[in-house]
Structures are given as structure tokens and as C-alpha cells.
Amino acid sequence: MAKKLGFFGKITKFFKSVKSELKKVNWPNKEEITSNTLVVIVTVIALITFIGLIDLTLANIITPLIS
């Protein structure tokens, strides 16, 4: 029969499990982080520009209709 763990035993088991799983993680190297960060920044800038242009266009179309 399995031994029942107390509260602190469960916490200890959880952190040992977390440590074990973190050892299995394939961490990215510096070049991968840099390239992925650049992709994110460029994508965010492109989306900001696109949404801003749509907002400006719709504002210019709708404003005369409301006035």
C-alpha cells in the first residue's frame, strides 16, 4: 500500500517533479532568442500600422456621416 503524504510531503514531491521536468526542457540559445524577439517586434509593428490605417480610414468615412 502506498504511503500517504502529508501537506509538506506533497509540496516537496511537487517541487521535485518540477525540477525534474525543467531538466528536460530544451532551452533556446542566444541566437534563437534574438531572432524570435525580432520576429515578434516586426509583427507587432506591422499589426499596429495595419490597425492604425484601418482606424484612420474608418474614422474618415464615418465622421462625415455622423456630423
From TrEMBL:
GO terms for biological process: intracellular protein transmembrane transport; protein secretion; protein targeting; protein transport by the Sec complex. It is a single-pass membrane protein. The keyword RNA-binding does not apply. It comes from Halanaerobium congolense. Keywords: Cell membrane, Membrane, Protein transport, Translocation, Transmembrane, Transmembrane helix, Transport. Belongs to the SecE/SEC61-gamma family. GO terms for molecular function: protein transmembrane transporter activity. This is Protein translocase subunit SecE. Component of the Sec protein translocase complex. Heterotrimer consisting of SecY, SecE and SecG subunits. The heterotrimers can form oligomers, although 1 heterotrimer is thought to be able to translocate proteins. Interacts with the ribosome. Interacts with SecDF, and other proteins may be involved. Interacts with SecA.
